[in-house]
Amino acid sequence: MAKKKEISVENKLRSLFDLQLIDSRIDEIRSVRGELPLEVEDLENEISGLKTRIENFNKELKDYQESIAFEKNNIEVAKETDKKYEANLKNVRNNREYNSIQKEQEFQKLEIELSEKKIKELQSKSELKKTNIEEIQIKLDERNEHLTAKNKELKSIMSETEKEEILLIKKSEEFEKNIEDNLINSYKKIRSSVSNGLAIVAVERGASGGSYFAIPPQTQMEIASRKKIIKDEHSGRILVDQKLAEEEIDKMMSVFKKTK
Question: Per-residue pLDDT tens for 168-177?
Answer without folding.
Answer: 999 899 888 8
